[in-house]
Amino acid sequence: MPGFYEDVIQPNQRERDLTADIPLTRAELIDQLGIEAPLLTDKNGQDLKETLYFEPTLSIEGISSGWQGAGVKTVLPARAEAKLEARLVPGMDPDKTFNQVKNYLTEQGYDDLTLTKTLGQPGYRSDMSDPEILRVVNVVDKLYDTEPIVAPTGAGTGPMYYIHEVVQAPIASLGIGYTNNRDHAPNENIRLADYDDDIVVIKQLIATYEN
């Protein structure tokens, strides 16, 4: 789609280095998610990880049309609905992206569409070299036997951009998930030991501000 990537802020070297340290391969991603269809990209290695962490997405969440009630009905559908979702990254504007999608569909001949924007917010990414981010990493590093994996961004949608605009401070997320917690799936789960460990991490992090 023309212009979709034009405002994307490219990762800096620190962010690329952190991504390189994340232990993820193409084969592991396919196995972890149970993907049977081919991936939409041929990328592998660092290129694949940078696509996952630093590029936006545009997905079809659902499509409905025609008769879907009980019994049989021979119809030629006169109406169809679809819900799309774009996950934005830093630099992208929600309103501009919405208009890009709308204009692109119109240019493809779908000028009888009615598009409704449900919600939108800009992407956010903290400065991974900020002392407060390094403080969090240092606390985690001291409490665990293995070196922490630091992801420079996450795929979730939250109010980080707007909070940062007000407080002007970096934001870090300390989740209690693990590799196979299967976010948002029917079998989403956490391990109780991780829950307990995270309480200790937060306690130690708060303690660093007492001095």
From TrEMBL:
* Sequence ranges assigned to domain Peptidase M20 dimerisation in this UniProt record: 52-110
Q: Which GO terms describe its biological process?
A: lysine biosynthetic process via diaminopimelate; proteolysis
Per the record, GO CC terms?
cytosol
Q: Which InterPro entries match?
A: Cyt/Met_Dipeptidase (IPR051458), Peptidase_M20_dimer (IPR011650)
Q: Please provide an example of a Pfam family that matches this protein in its UniProt record.
A: M20_dimer
Q: Name one GO molecular function term.
A: succinyl-diaminopimelate desuccinylase activity
Keywords (alphabetical) are:
Hydrolase, Metal-binding, Protease
In terms of superkingdom, the source organism counts as: Bacteria
Q: Does the keyword Metal-binding apply?
A: yes
| PANTHER family assigned to the protein according to its UniProt record, in alphabetical order | BETA-ALA-HIS DIPEPTIDASE, DI- AND TRIPEPTIDASE DUG2-RELATED
Q: What is this protein called?
A: Peptidase, ArgE/DapE family
Q: Which organism is it from?
A: Weissella viridescens (Lactobacillus viridescens)
